[in-house]
Structures are given as structure tokens and as C-alpha cells.
Amino acid sequence: MSNELTRRALLAMSAVLAAGASLPSLGAVQTAEGHMRNMMEVPPNAPKVAMLIYPKMVALDLIGPMSVFKILRCDVQLVWKEKIAVSTDVGIPFTATQTFDECPQDVNVLFVPGGLMGTIECMNDPVVCSFLADRGSRAKWVTSVCTGSLALGAAGLLKGYDATSHWAVADLLPLMGARHVSRRVVRDRNRMTGGGVTAGIDFGLMIAAELKGEEEARRVQLILEYNPQPPFKNGSPEQAGAERVEKMRQRRGYMDAIARNAAEAAGKRINAVSS
Amino acid sequence: MSNELTRRALLAMSAVLAAGASLPSLGAVQTAEGHMRNMMEVPPNAPKVAMLIYPKMVALDLIGPMSVFKILRCDVQLVWKEKIAVSTDVGIPFTATQTFDECPQDVNVLFVPGGLMGTIECMNDPVVCSFLADRGSRAKWVTSVCTGSLALGAAGLLKGYDATSHWAVADLLPLMGARHVSRRVVRDRNRMTGGGVTAGIDFGLMIAAELKGEEEARRVQLILEYNPQPPFKNGSPEQAGAERVEKMRQRRGYMDAIARNAAEAAGKRINAVSS
What we know:
The first copy, chain A, has helices spanning 3-18, 28-40, 59-71, 116-123, 126-138, 148-154, 199-212, 214-223, 237-240, 242-274, and strands at 48-52, 75-80, 85-86, 94-95, 98-99, 109-112, 141-144, 162-163, 179-180, 185-188, 191-194. With 275 residues, chain A is of the alpha/beta class.
């Protein structure tokens, strides 16, 4: 063992002991398991985070913020109608840990990921919309990434709020009473909505700071080594330029068109309720 | 239907017809399924991507690059000893789609994600190391994100190569014959290794450009809206500053110490083989 190694190992042991935990045994596998368990343990009174999952969602929309919540040791639950596996864009199924009924009445964070074809089904689904509307009415934070904000909008949760969404559908937000603000993450009172997919990491760090303070958010950022250096400048319509955007709009035309239909229908419902 | 909507829908339909595909029916759910299926379909001769998964891995290390490969319609397989579910840091299990035996002899991309406690077990596991060494000897690209490079190193695949890893363990690479280069993504001949966790997205776009050309990589970037805007400057040891780094090194001391042991043992094996 080098001196540096000994020093670090001793420091680690003292930290463990200082925290009142038992010293991990040195049997390799069991120690690794124990260490992992300690890292993941959810303390009492941890913030309750309810993350909606649904068929055809985009995995990265969820995994970015979820990684942040987990490092913060929040009580993170994946919520859907039933405790079944739903499909994702990458082909890895995600399984709900709570049904809508099991989800606590009062959560600290209600979060909706994107996944346009699936989002549209959520927008048109009264069971999903009423679950979101109910928990969202009391949640400390009502949040989304990517097209998830369209589902929040369809549940009436963005009426009168600034919000954003994936660039390709953000223009649909006003159909449901929201003001579209073109920023990576938009906060308006207790609503926090992020742009497309990778905005979930920026969003995650911003909500981390709200839940646990800036220093904790910075700690998460260092663990995730979030010092992004995109090889190209093509991450927004402005950067990509009109020609590339038009090409993509054509490829997406079918999807975006039925999203508009859903947003228009939701807008009518929301206005009928509030008038 | 607005004129804009009609125009977009028509453009989308023409694109579908031009591609020789059958016109999607307008029955909502079935159309969405069909659309989704078309989006995900893997064309013949798609690049073969073998992504190692293993217990205690970091989900985001995999999902970032996997999202890129999927949008590029690569033939993506999750590979492990058996077709079983492995645990991840966020608590969502990932299930292998191919065993080591089923993984093709020649793949375009061999990829290893991180997850330090699990990575260490891979480094110490002769079955995992010999699988990586074998496929890596013929793979067009040998790649990793985060601590995944330690497993490549333990398999002897980084000897004489520039490489990087998560900042906290990157100093272990030279123990296995690699030169540590402190960059977000390091390419040396057909090796491409990324830094910690979120570097997987930068890595994904860089390998996308190699597989399919820059224009396709840019298309992926626009879909993922990868225009990062971290709320804090704390994503590297330099940005975080000495005090925060030392604090984290103390918390990580136990993990990093056993990683060093594994790297030293691997280094001895590698030198024994080559001398």
C-alpha cells in the first residue's frame, strides 16, 4: 500500500466511524455490497420525488434527473397506473415502484419526462391527467423535462405560468395557457420545466440546489463530472440553422401534428373548466 | 387543422411514401406504435454495438451513449455473462440482450460504462477481462465512459494508449500501461475513452461522427437538444477547487483505494503476459 493510499483509506474509515456507522468488513464482495447500500440508503424525511413513467418515454429524460435525486438520497419513486414495465426509446423497460393510488398525496417533487408519442397518449388520457392535476395541486415542485411539459400542460398545471419544452413542440405550450419562454430551464414560482432530453441534467442540478442548497448541487455536479464539451454547436435550432431545422421538422411532421391536436383538445378542456 | 399543420402533415406523409413505407393508418394508438416501430427499426448492415452491462453500474454512463446509438439505428446489444438483470446505481435493473457467447466475434463498437464498485469486480474477474480482451482485439472501436476505462485497462486493452476516466480514478490508468490524458474525451487510434458519467454524451456524439459522419452526429445533437448550460461551474476538479476535491476524495477514499488495488493487480498480470 502506498502512503497516499493508506492516508486516504484511513481518512475514509474515520469518516465512516465519525458518522456512527459500523466499519465495513474487508471481505471484498460483501464490503462492496455494504458500501453500495450505504451510498443508496434513503434517510428519514428525505424529499419525496414522484417521477411519472409511461410507455414510449425517453429513457435519458428520466435517468439524468433521477441520477441527481439518487445522489441526493431523495425518496425516488417511479409512478404509473400499475406496477408494470413500460417501454422506453432505448428498448430498456422501466418498472413502476408505485401505482397512482400508492403515490403519497403530498410530494416534494412531481416530475414528468418526455417521449413524444407516449406524451401524447398521456395528454389524451383522463386518468393520467387527473393524477398529475391532483398531485401537482399540492406538490412543492411541479417539474418536467423535454415534452413532459405538454403532459403538465394538458393537466392544467401550466396555465398562467412561464414554461419550456423540447424545441420542436414548445410552441404548443400557449395552446394550454402557458407562456413559452425559450430558455434551457424555466422556473416560474414552483414550476420548473426543462428543454429537450439533455436539459434534464441542467434541470437536475437546479432543482438540487432548491432542495438541498447550492453546495450539495455542486457536489453532485462534480460526481457526475458535468463539464460538458459538445463536439459540435448544434444543440438548439439557432445553432443548427434554418436548413437543418426544416429538415428535421419534416421528419417529425407526423408526430408534431398529432401533438398539436392533443394540445388543442387539452386547451379546450382547460378553458371549459376555468370559465 | 391550421395551414401550417396540414403542410407539415403532408410533408411527413410524402416522406413516408417516398421511403417506400406503407402509409400509417390514422387510428391513434396503432399509428403511434407503427411510427415508434419505424423510428426504432434497425436496418441491415447497421453498426454492431456491444455494450457491457454489469452489477452496480452507473445507469447514466450507459443511457447517454445508448440514446445516441439508438437514434443512429445501430444494432445495440447489452452484453453480460448471462441474460439476467443487473443492478444499477439508480435502482432500475438492466437486462442483458446477449450473453458473452452470443455476442458476435466482430463488433463495430465495444463499449464499457462505469460504476466503480462494479467496475472493480469486473477488473478482478477473469471471465469479464477475457471477454473484453477478445472482442476488443478485433472491434473497430474500443470505448468507455467514466470508470469503464479501468475495466478496459484491466483487460490489457489500453496498454500504450492515451486514455481518460472519471477524474477521481484517472491516475490509476498508468498502472495498467495507459497514458492518462486529461481531456473530456480522449481518442488514440481506435480507442475512445470519456471522462466521468456525463462525458458519455460528448463521447456519444464523437463516436456518432466516426460511425455515420458529422452531419448525422449533428442531427442527433439537435434531437437531444444538447446545448448544455450548467447552472454552476463545478464539473471538474479544477472548477470545483482543492477544498471540495479533497472533501470528496475523503468520502470516496474506501472505493478509490480498492480500485487502486485492482489496478495494481491488473498491471502485474498485463506485464507478466507481455514480458
